[in-house]
Design goal:
The chain starts with a helix and ends in a 43-residue tail after the last helix. The chain is elongated. With 128 residues, the chain is mostly helical.
Length: 128
Amino acid sequence: MALRGRTRSGRARLRGWLKWVPWLLMPFALLFTEAYFRIQRVNNDYETNRINGELERINAHIDELRTLKAKYDNLEYLNQRAVELGFVPPKPNQIEIVRPEGAPAPPPPDAELDFPQLDLPDPVAPES
C-alpha cells in the first residue's frame, strides 16, 4: 500500500512540474531568440561593410575609366597618336565609296538638286 501512495505523489509532482515548464522555458526561449537576432545583425553588418568596400572599389575603377576616356577623346591626344602611328589624310583618289548592288548612284557634287514642292493646305486657326 505504501508503494502506491508514493507513485501517486510522484505523478502529482510530475504534473505540478509540467504546469510550470512553459513559464520556465519562456525566458530561455526569449534569450536564445535575442541572441540569434543579435548574431544575424552582426553578420548583416559584416556583409554590408564588405559590399560597401566593393562598391567603393568599383566607383574608383569607374572614375579611372572616365579619366582614361576623357584622355582618349581629347583631340590633341588623337592628333599626337595619329602622327606617331603615321596616319595621313587621304588623297581624293584614295577614297572609294561602296554601295550595295542595285542602289542608285548619288548625284555628282556639282549638280543642283531640284526638290518637288508640296502643296500644303493652309493651317486652320484654332476656335475659341
